[in-house]
Task: structure prediction
Amino acid sequence: MQATIIEAINDALHEEMATDDRTLVFGQDVAESGGVFRATEGLQETFGGDRVLDTPLSEIAIVGAAIGLATYGYRPVAEIQFSGFLPPAFDQLVTNASRIRWRTRGELTAPMTVRTPYGAGVRALEHHSESLEAVYSHIPGLKVAVPSTPHDAKGMLISAIRDPDPVLFMEPKHVYRSFREEVPDGTYTEPLGEAAVRREGEDVTVIAWGAMMHKTREAVDNLDGIDVELIDLRSISPLDRETVVRSVKKTGRCVVVHEAPKSGGFAGELIATINDEALMFLEAPVERVTGFDVPVPLLAMEDFYIPQPPRIEEAITETVNY
Amino acid sequence: MQATIIEAINDALHEEMATDDRTLVFGQDVAESGGVFRATEGLQETFGGDRVLDTPLSEIAIVGAAIGLATYGYRPVAEIQFSGFLPPAFDQLVTNASRIRWRTRGELTAPMTVRTPYGAGVRALEHHSESLEAVYSHIPGLKVAVPSTPHDAKGMLISAIRDPDPVLFMEPKHVYRSFREEVPDGTYTEPLGEAAVRREGEDVTVIAWGAMMHKTREAVDNLDGIDVELIDLRSISPLDRETVVRSVKKTGRCVVVHEAPKSGGFAGELIATINDEALMFLEAPVERVTGFDVPVPLLAMEDFYIPQPPRIEEAITETVNY
Amino acid sequence: MNEDPRPAPARPISADAETVSQDDVDVDTYRILEPDGSYDAERLPDLDDETFRELYRWMVLQRVFDNRATKLQRRGKLGTYASGRGQEASIIGSAFALSDQDRIFPYGREAGTLLIHGLSMRDLLLYWRGLEDASRMDGANSFGVAISIGSHVPVVTGTAWGMKLDDADSVAFANLGDGATSTGAFHEGINFAGVLDAPAVFFTQNNQYAISLPFEEQTAADTVAQKALGYGIDGIRVDGNDVLAVYNAVLTARENAMDGTPTLVEAVTYRRAAHTTSDDPSRYRERSEVEEWEKQDPLERYREFLQSEGLFEAIDEEAVREEIDEMFDDAVAAADEFAERDVREIFEHLHEEMPPELRRQLSEYEELLDERPDMYEHIEQRPKG
Amino acid sequence: MNEDPRPAPARPISADAETVSQDDVDVDTYRILEPDGSYDAERLPDLDDETFRELYRWMVLQRVFDNRATKLQRRGKLGTYASGRGQEASIIGSAFALSDQDRIFPYGREAGTLLIHGLSMRDLLLYWRGLEDASRMDGANSFGVAISIGSHVPVVTGTAWGMKLDDADSVAFANLGDGATSTGAFHEGINFAGVLDAPAVFFTQNNQYAISLPFEEQTAADTVAQKALGYGIDGIRVDGNDVLAVYNAVLTARENAMDGTPTLVEAVTYRRAAHTTSDDPSRYRERSEVEEWEKQDPLERYREFLQSEGLFEAIDEEAVREEIDEMFDDAVAAADEFAERDVREIFEHLHEEMPPELRRQLSEYEELLDERPDMYEHIEQRPKG
Ligand SMILES: Cc1ncc(C[n+]2csc(CCOP(=O)(O)OP(=O)(O)O)c2C)c(N)n1
Ligand SMILES: Cc1ncc(C[n+]2csc(CCOP(=O)(O)OP(=O)(O)O)c2C)c(N)n1
Ligand SMILES: [Mg+2]
Ligand SMILES: [Mg+2]
Result:
């Protein structure tokens, strides 16, 4: 079928709910109303109120209950309505979700998924536009996935739900509906922990993920005469170091694009990885095209904040001409 | 006077409480009992129960109330008993403390300090040994300081309290009492945002902060024939890029030591900075000596986790011999 | 030691420990104006005639503002908007009970509260247009809007604590929704306020929904007010569609608070509009339910009272509405004239002194914007609606 | 519109909104055994004589274990230890009310609970020696200890929810302290449990302190039990030094919970020991206060009951203590024999499958440990005491 990202996610949830009756979906406004972005539309009708449930406005309890269910044998898929509202539950991720397997030496495990739309560009209110993947990537035991296409959104979400360990599934809400592509019917998985090379090239490696993949692709398409290798990172943690390193060894140049503020952003880990394993192949500094070290502006100014294609183009050109 | 870090902190609090009567100190067990590490000992006796207060077991409320007080004109110095218990208040840091000046365009400001002991090595229970400075460094608007000496602890804490914006002050509890040094009486400040070069050298730049400074110094002292430039980072945010870059341009080699897990750790930002501004000076990859990508083990095994001098020595030697 | 000494409680052993439950406590709903038009004269607040009328005019203003703003949004000239329709008595009644010294912590729906307390209508519109500059809250003694639900509650406690230390004649006043009562921040903030005897008023507009979730599914507690008992503070449950009752309730709460008892007020009302302009309430509630509440319209109820008291004659409702419409038009015009923002604005006001790295980011960006004017093809300085 | 329509509430306008407060609710403390030795025969649980005696033996075990563990710590052979001294009735009484199917969420002081429910004494000692391997909770149906106070409460709710979905004959049982009731996690977890009608028992040992902070300063609420009202669930306040009352209270709570009413139990007791072996309580409380509570010793109170019932004769207390001491000695010996841990242990069990980067970190580290045997000068695999 042809599907947008949001449709693909909805489809993945339907598939997994049908496949494994220990899969549960809950969160704010996910059941009765089908989710503020309609990601969970139709689930309650199909699978009933026991398995698809609206929760109170309690992010701690949403994530905490997911842990309690998962360690008891269920496969919870919790939604946090916007990733800007995940910080209240940060402690549950750090203190319990990511380490219950560790703490109990494998006796209890937390096969749970926390889905949350992230990123700027939808003209929403404050706290609706954050991208804190770098923060979550630093929690050992927590996987962090960010799909950028409908195909991956479905396949990776199914992988996340089936994963034996907790996965934070960050959804690029800016491109939830911006395009359709062919998405296989039925069940399939896309692996977590593997980047995808979207375009092979010789001149420069460009790495992005989530919504930034699309800004980056636009930039790449605008660049004549530069043979870009474009990597969709897809997994922030675990990081597919191999694909990144292999590519940079080939091209000798690299640009990383992300929405989050520059300082402390995930580009740092990528650059450190390149430094570790491909430093001597670098012909130019790795460029970062990122959000600025400020909160995401309110809607009137947010476009200034988001890395736009011309910025990305400049960085690529500069890197190639370095 | 000769003072340990904990004594220097206590002294700084006494000084600032005496200097500015809008300074308040609160947190769990800080008043009546003087703090589990005795950082706040004697404050309540001297400054009274109105200004030095025990709070309930409510990290959200501790940080939240500090914001409310600071925006109302007070200078709160809140203690979070162990940095492993700061995650419940993460949202208050992200959502309110770091951005109230931004949100109100400077009308309201949050001149507040959150003190918290961080790091492993004191044989405590789970969640008592974390080092999440990289996480906090990624929040625009929040300063993050980590002193490593009594002199800095006092001077930087006074700076933090006087800072017009929120400062997270992470104290290396592992070395709270491990040594004394001369600490000036009375009031003085050490700037935030400035690293200190602890030892000049030509062969390799070694960067550490907090408790790791001491492990690192031990390693450096063990290394014969390597002329190390040793940088105590002191401020994680804002980062003193200049000092780092200047040093690496000189030495062409660098090792970063931190306690936190490697992936997503703050070494990434340092390496990215070096990549930005000194890549072509690098004669070897920057080495990271860090905690592993696991939670800090419980007390029986924690020494395995902490970067010990021989590990640091190896990394320095390898980098120099690269 | 017996290896397995426990009796199997699965075979029920009769146990009789007494429980305490919400049935053990009566929570009355305070009301002055009955839906049938009668009222409790004893309870009438001691206001002069003009103030009685002003209350009405401000309720009309809230209604008109909400309508106009919603329309503006539909025309793509405002961002997402959250209407207070149905909650006018709660919004205006509470606002009237506060003094200029009180610090307000808004949660979004209370246009009238902010306007009464000094914010200009232009700035309020600019806020909903997503302009940082408007959150300055110029003229009002107000914190920024707590978009992260419940996140302001502990901050309110801190400010109230400061007021107590200063012996100030004021309170910190939180506006919040029923949804916020499910958050950890609510709990920690109010519990701490109780310990501190802080002069804080936690004013909960229980409009029966947190987006699609009805109050009954947010908590098994029958009321918000009873949550006060868990904190050892006072609770007041008030008819949130009765502006005079709300006024008295918040005055009472305010006095209590200044006397050292923080108070949790629950104004029982109803959100008649969609959650925001992005929401479609037909997905989760029946139109008939809304209609039931329309019959309890707070403006009508209060108008009846004014009429029965002979106070309404001096109000020319038509003229009032026209005046408000004009204010709104002027505000939109002023908002439209508000200069395009300079990119510097998003770099400023985060730190008292901009750190070097941020300065560099700004100057590099300014250069880029110069060199690549096509950047502006990607930058729209307006709501998309 | 009047520019400043508000009356100045500083001139107090009399307002009379009724408040609800904790004075409106009576929270009785359930008790069976009076401190004076009398008891309420009606309330006695229906246990056989041997079980009555087992209750006593386990209380002794808790007491002895705490003493011995504290001493072991003083000798540098255990990490920080948190004693349950004074809370034996709460710890043992609650443990006896639970079935094997119930999942326990411990908070640290309840040695007896874990031992009753199948953990070996060796493993419990290893836990306090900081060995990950012990947190496996071998033999017990238990979650890991919630060292982050309150953090387990929403997890308990989730597990109870799962039990409800499974129609299981069990509850999720949280042990927590009074301190935990101030956390946001407590609030969100219990409120959600109320909404879910989840079979959860939240058992609060109100031992009057959160480290140095007395209960009165943790909350303005008079009791923990009344906090149930804010969640629409049931509360039970029980004398936590009366083992039979605690047993009945938890049985009641458990039955309620399985019938769909989660229950918050407050066991009123006292922490007679230091908070942990790192704490010095003389900094914040008077010895006389401790002595007052020593008079209410839970073991003595229960012994008197057993004596008056003629049940005590069959107990040779000396022998019981000796037996426990021996068990403890054996457990220490077994713990001492527990092999030195291999470094792999800290890399394992975080992921089902170790990610490549972590595998690399491990193998590099193993190499380093080989090459630099002086690493072991920095690595001590034991508590420092
Ligand atoms: C912490 C947090 N979680 C989720 C949201 C998304 N959200 C916005 S408003 C809302 C419901 C708020 O309900 P209530 O507090 O009753 O206020 P109302 O909108 O009914 O006035 C939700 C869930 C949010 N803004 N903040
Ligand atoms: C979230 C969190 N904050 C702070 C601490 C430090 N701390 C450990 S125990 C304790 C007091 C706990 O009191 P209570 O819940 O009453 O349990 P008790 O120790 O009295 O049995 C504190 C503050 C912690 N462990 N977790
Ligand atoms: Mg509501
Ligand atoms: Mg306690």
Notes: Chain C has twelve helices and seven strands. Chain C touches chain B at residues 103, 132-133, 135-138, 143-144, 148, 151-163, 165, 172, 184-185, 188-189, 191-192, 195, 348-352, 355-357 (CB under 8 Å). The longest helix of chain C spans residues 49-74. The two ends of chain C are 72 Å apart (CA to CA).
